[in-house]
């Protein structure tokens, strides 16, 4: 640090926990404020959901990692992968070594429907399916029974669209992506020919965005099927769309109208978009026999006193036969040991990014960014502004003397402690070795990379690469 450096973070050290987009944007902005940053992740690989969440057939979205690589190259930045907060290291230990801690751990769990049969064989949370096809090391041994002809995807968000598309994309199109090899094989052998995408509210309230909805209509081997009657909007939806509906909702309805006007084109596969249907029960034989269908109730839209449009069940019930159910109704945060958690919202308890105790009092030096701060919403770029808002609070608190006062903030000693805390510990050079190895494997096959999916492989390659770069 230069003696003249008057930035709020100068001479101060920050631990950012979680190397996804929110963690990288927070790191970048903390570096700008003069902090030294240690970015710590449970996996030996960085980039969070950009690597393990974004669909493999969306390589352009993944190219945002180039921005994060620039952050990683900056002075004052260090990466420690393969180290899990709560298992390998404790929050209390971080409080003793850093002036500030920023939690950027995302929301790894799935919301529950809370209906009978939810956990039958053949009914899976989409979060798990996504992590599996993206080669997340904790999910590489999962298995999904893809032998059914019809699958039901519950939910109307972009994740629901992603998983529906992954079931329908032609194998030769997936083969050139970085889909994990185990998933490529099983998806190629899948027998699913029809996906029913189920929304509990109407077309005007769907959560998916326009490009994602449009992609469903562009699948090479699957026709999109929308019953025109569903586009006769109820009075509340029509009035809302006209007066308050945003551009995305209006465009979604237009796209759906165009889909409804299409005639069957003889495609081998299909995707049916069904609205105003809530699942009541996942059906199957006996208590825990495999999925045979979903009992749904038809809904109507009602306007609540506070102006929201909600789904209200009618007395019309229907069974949709299927052998596979993917539940895609949003992610949920998981509590970290010794870090306050808001059970109701499923996020770390915070006020505008400052972690708070039960009475709402801010804990000195502890902050939160991304989905574990505000809940699982928005696109990758949303996290940049979100991180800036939190970092502005850190700067304010640094100037007011409200950060932590670590007893051992020595950078070299902390690196030694972190690396010694886990047999899976990997630094940035180790990740670069993994990255180069995966890209090499991909090159011959015309793929961006072939992902290593086992912790042992990732660690071996990172160690070998780091050792060869030292010699
Ligand atoms: P989401 O956008 O919040 O969508 C969740 C869906 O689940 C909504 O349609 C919601 O309906 C429905 N739902 C919730 N509870 C339900 C229940 N009990 N029964 C039936 N349906 C229920 O969540 P997401 O799809 O997980 O996406 C998370 C975020 O990541 C979003 O911001 C998304 O845009 C983003 N993302 C972006 C991309 C991309 O840019 N390509 C890809 C993937 C994800 P209601 O509206 O009625 O609550």
Helix-strand layout with pairing:
Blueprint: E1 13-17, H1 21-32, E2 36-40, H2 48-52, H3 59-62, H4 65-72, E3 77-81, H5 91-95, E4 100-103, E5 109-110, E6 123-125, H6 126-133, E7 150-154, H7 158-168, H8 171-174, H9 181-189, E8 194-198, H10 210-216, E9 222-225, H11 235-243, H12 247-260, E10 269-274, E11 277-284, E12 291-303, E13 309-321, E14 324-327, E15 331-332, E16 341-342, E17 347-348, E18 350-351, E19 354-356, E20 362-368, H13 371-374, H14 382-399, H15 411-420, E21 426-427, H16 428-444, H17 455-470
Parallel strand pairs: 1-2, 1-4, 2-3, 4-20, 6-14, 7-8, 7-14, 8-10, 9-10
Antiparallel strand pairs: 3-21, 5-15, 11-12, 12-13, 16-17, 18-19, 19-20
Bound molecules: NADP nicotinamide-adenine-dinucleotide phosphate.
The site of NADP nicotinamide-adenine-dinucleotide phosphate has 25 residues, from helix 7.
Quick summary:
The chain has 471 residues and is of the alpha/beta class. The chain is 34% helix and 22% strand.
CATH class of the largest domain: Alpha Beta
CATH topology-level fold name of the largest domain: FAD/NAD(P)-binding domain
Distance between the termini: 30 Å
CATH superfamily of the largest domain: FAD/NAD(P)-binding domain
What strand order characterises the main sheet?
Answer: 18-19-20-4-1-2-3-21
Runs with pLDDT <50, length 5+?
Answer: none
Number of helices: 17
Note down, in words, how this protein is organized.
- The structure is a single chain.
- This protein has 471 residues and is of the alpha/beta class.
- The chain folds into two domains: 13-108 and 333-424, NAD(P)-binding Rossmann-like Domain (Rossmann fold, 3-Layer(aba) Sandwich); 111-330, FAD/NAD(P)-binding domain (3-Layer(bba) Sandwich), CATH 3.50.50.
- The chain is 34% helix and 22% strand.
- It is built from 17 helices and 21 strands.
- The strands form five sheets. The protein has an eight-stranded mixed β-sheet, sandwiched between helices. A six-stranded parallel β-sheet has the order 6-14-7-8-10-9.
- α6 crosses α7 (158-168).
- NADP nicotinamide-adenine-dinucleotide phosphate is lined by residues 113, 154-160, 162, 199-201, 205, 207, 209, 212, 278, 328-331, 376-379.
- Residues 113, 154-160, 162, 199-201, 205, 207, 209, 212, 278, 328-331, 376-379 line the site of NADP nicotinamide-adenine-dinucleotide phosphate (NAP).
């Amino acid at each position: 640090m230069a003696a003249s450096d008057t930035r709020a973070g100068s001479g101060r050290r920050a631990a950012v926990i979680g190397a996804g987009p929110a963690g990288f944007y927070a790191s970048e902005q903390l570096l700008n404020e003069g902090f030294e940053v240690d970015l710590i992740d449970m996996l030996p690989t960085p980039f969070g959901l950009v690597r393990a969440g974004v669909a493999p057939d969306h390589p352009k979205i993944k190219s945002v990692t180039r921005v994060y690589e620039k952050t990683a190259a900056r002075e004052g930045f260090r990466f420690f992968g393969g180290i899990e907060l709560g298992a390998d290291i404790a929050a209390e230990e971080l409080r003793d070594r850093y002036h500030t801690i920023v939690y950027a751990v995302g929301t790894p769990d799935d919301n529950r429907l809370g209906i009978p049969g939810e956990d039958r064989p053949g009914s899976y949370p989409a979060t798990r399916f996504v992590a599996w096809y993206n080669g997340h090391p904790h999910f590489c041994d999962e298995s999904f029974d893809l032998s059914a002809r019809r699958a039901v995807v519950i939910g109307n968000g972009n994740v629901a669209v992603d998983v529906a598309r992954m079931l329908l994309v032609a194998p030769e199109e997936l083969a050139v992506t970085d889909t994990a090899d185990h998933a490529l094989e099983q998806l190629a052998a899948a027998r699913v020919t029809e996906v029913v995408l189920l929304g509990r509210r109407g077309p005007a309230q769907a959560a998916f965005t326009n490009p994602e909805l449009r992609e469903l209509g562009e699948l090479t081997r699957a026709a999109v099927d929308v019953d025109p009657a569903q586009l006769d909007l109820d009075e509340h939806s029509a009035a809302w769309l006209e007066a308050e509906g945003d551009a995305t909702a209006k465009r979604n309805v237009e796209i759906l109208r165009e889909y409804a006007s299409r005639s069957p084109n003889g495609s081998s596969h299909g995707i049916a978009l069904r609205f105003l249907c809530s699942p009541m029960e996942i059906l199957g034989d006996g208590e825990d026999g495999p999925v045979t269908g979903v009992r749904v109730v038809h809904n109507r839209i009602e306007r609540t006193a506070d102006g929201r449009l909600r789904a209200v069940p009618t007395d019309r019930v229907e069974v949709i036969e299927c052998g596979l159910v993917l539940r895609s109704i949003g992610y949920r945060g998981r509590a970290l040991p010794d870090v306050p958690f808001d059970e109701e919202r499923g996020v770390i308890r915070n006020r505008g990014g400052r972690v708070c105790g039960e009475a709402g009092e801010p804990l000195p030096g502890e902050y939160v960014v991304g989905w574990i701060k505000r809940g699982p919403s928005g696109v990758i770029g949303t996290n940049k502004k979100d991180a800036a808002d939190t970092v502005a609070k850190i700067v304010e608190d640094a100037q007011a003397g409200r950060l932590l006062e670590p007893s051992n903030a020595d950078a070299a000693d902390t690196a030694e402690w972190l690396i010694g805390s886990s047999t899976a510990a990997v630094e940035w050079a180790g990740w670069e070795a993994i990255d180069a190895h995966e890209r090499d494997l991909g090159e011959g096959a015309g793929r961006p990379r072939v992902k290593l999916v086992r912790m042992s492989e990732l660690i071996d390659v990172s160690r070998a690469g780091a050792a060869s770069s030292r010699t």
